[in-house]
Amino acid sequence: MNVLKSGFAVLCLCALLACAGACVRPKAVPKPKPEVAEPLAAGKHILLIVPQSDFSDQDYEKLLEVFTAEGAATQLAAPRATTASSIKGIILPTDVALELADAAAYDALIFIGGKGASSLFEDEDAFRLSREAAAQGKVLGACDTATLILALAGVLEGKSATAPPRLSKSFKEVSKSTYTDKNVVADTNIVTSASQEDSESLARKVVELLQ
Predict the structure, then answer these.
(1) Among 185, 205, 207, 203, which Cα is nearest to 194's?
(2) Other residues' Cβ atoms within 10 Å of the Cβ of residue 29
(3) Which of 121, 122, 166, 169 is most buried by a 10 A CB count?
(4) Which residues pair with 142 in a beta bridge?
(5) What DSSP state is assigned to residue 29?
(6) Cβ neighbours of 19 (radius 10 Å)
(7) CA-to-CA dists, residue 71 to 29, 45, 136, 210, angstroms
(8) Are 47 and 75 in contact (CB under 8 A)?
(9) CA distance 209 to 30
(10) Residue 103's closest CA among 128, 84, 80?
(11) What pLDDT sits at residue 38?
């Protein structure tokens, strides 16, 4: 009888141990948190320069989209610090007049294209800003039609650059640069693009140069 009791006790003990083991859940191992990449242009300040009217919607939207996503702060400059209107009629408040803009306050200055950019082809403040930016080693860019502004300012001399095909003859005559028919061209700190379709690529090249 004692043997039976002892055997029964052992069986009960084993059953209890098995049950206890089944009830103990393994500790969950926390999954490592994915690394979040820091925006590539965080803390950078970019001046977007537009004519008072008829600037390219596509240029503006793509540049703003890329620069904002990469953490850059942007301001809008035009000949007058009032409002500026796009080709499609979008009206935007401007932050600074060209005559008061200081290249030293920004990490990059970008001229936006569109048919209205031709109104800056004789704008001395646009030329001054271009020259200051180039002399100070700032990133300087121009989209499609606005590439001729940099050419007229004299900052493309000795550089490789591109421009819209329809402007290539005038561009070659005044820029004293090595003209190429590529979509986007970067030479040291100056970036130019040939069409509105290339504005996003230009923006990404600007971000790359700002790092």
Answers:
(1) 185
(2) 6
(3) 121
(4) 111, 192
(5) P
(6) 9
(7) 34, 9, 23, 12
(8) yes
(9) 38
(10) 128
(11) 79
